[in-house]
Each structure stands twice: as C-alpha cells, then as structure tokens.
Amino acid sequence: MTGIVRMMVVVVALSLAQWVEPLHAGEVIRVGVMDQQMVMERTKGGKLAMEDVKGYSMTRQKIINADEQELKDLDQSLQDPNAKLTDQVRQEKEEQLRSKMEAYQRRLQEFNREVQQKQREMVAEYAQKIAAAAQAVAQKEGYTAILDKGNEALIRIILYYQPALDVTNLIIKEFDRQNP
User: Fold this and answer.
1) Of 95, 126, 157, 176, which has the most beta carbons under 10 Å away?
2) Whole-angstrom Cα distance, residue 35 to residue 166?
3) Would the CA dihedral through 41, 47, 51, 57 be positive or negative?
C-alpha cells in the first residue's frame, strides 16, 4: 500500500498546486499540515471505502482458500500410502494436480491485480475529495498551502512542524460535510 499512498500524496500535492495563487512580496504565508491517511481513516466516506475494498479482498481470499484446500486434499490423496492407485490413475491425478496448481496460480495473480486496481481507484477518488476538502479549509481559514505530513512508514514530506499547524481535524470535518 506504500505505492498507493505515495500516489495519493502526489495527486493531492498537484491538486493543491492548481489553486495556489502567485504570492506577492510582503504577503503573509500561512501553511497548514494534514495527515491524509488519518483523513481517509476517520471520515465516514473513507471508512466505508476502506471497508468496501476489504470486503472485496476477503471475498477473493475465501475463493483462494477453497482452492488451496482442494489442492491439499488432492495432494494428500496422492501421498496416502494406503491408497492403492494404479499407475494410470496416479498419473491422471498428478496431471490433475499440476493443472489445478497452474489455474490456482493464475487466479491468485488475477485476484491480486483486481484488488490492487480497486485500491488504486479508491485512492484516486478519495485523493480528489480530500484535496477539495483541504482547499475549502484553506480558503475559509486563510492558508496559502496545506501540506501532507506523511508518516514514518511512507514518504515523510514534512520533517518538522508546530502542532498548531495541523489542520487534519478541520479537513476531516469538511470532508464529511462535503461527502455526506
């Protein structure tokens, strides 16, 4: 998910850059800092979107788990010393196992791609909504820019800031207001 959040940071930064007006000498610059991940995790819409992706992923995981169990059962039937299999039956079961293993690996790759795509789509959609909420807060409160502070696990954009600059809670409220 690191790549997804990086993409989210870039989208928000570019979105914010579009509405920043040129500064003139002597103007006061107010900068706010937000935690975009926290906005995603604490807003009603963000929570629902993350639950949706999680549910989508869990559905696929159940299918994968069933496939794994089928492969284990087939392998155990081949390994069972009490099974009296003819060479032809053993060869057919081994071919069946090989075929099912290939299908399992293809399905696993396909499901991983689908889940990653769904995550990317959700992040892109919510990055725009977060940017809109950040822009509204910036305009209401007189900020020249609002930056994403990132976190330890991801890109750390802001190395230091005074806690008073954190406008995350304002953005969460605005996001929920804009996205009921």
Assistant:
1) 126
2) 8
3) negative
pTM of the model as a whole: 0.70
Report pLDDT digits (tens) over 41-83: 999 999 999 999 999 999 999 999 999 999 999 888 888 877 7
Instruction: Give which of 177, 179, 172, 180 is closest to 36, Cα–Cα.
Output: 172
DSSP states of 58-125: HHHHHHHHHHHHHHHHHHHHHH-TT----HHHHHHHHHHHHHHHHHHHHHHHHHHHHHHHHHHHHHHH
Q: Are 35 and 151 in contact (CB under 8 A)?
A: yes
Domains and CATH numbers, the chain: 2-178 (3.30.910.20)
Structure tokens at 6: 């990086």
Burial of 12 (0-12, 13-18, 19+ CB in 10 A): buried
Over residues 157-178, the pLDDT tens digits come to 788 889 999 999 999 999 999 9
What is the CA 93 to chain-centroid distance, rounded? Answer: 40
- Looking up tokens 């963000």 gives 46
Residues 3-50 pLDDT 10s: 554 555 444 444 544 544 555 666 778 999 999 989 999 999 999 999
d(CA 52, CA 58): 10
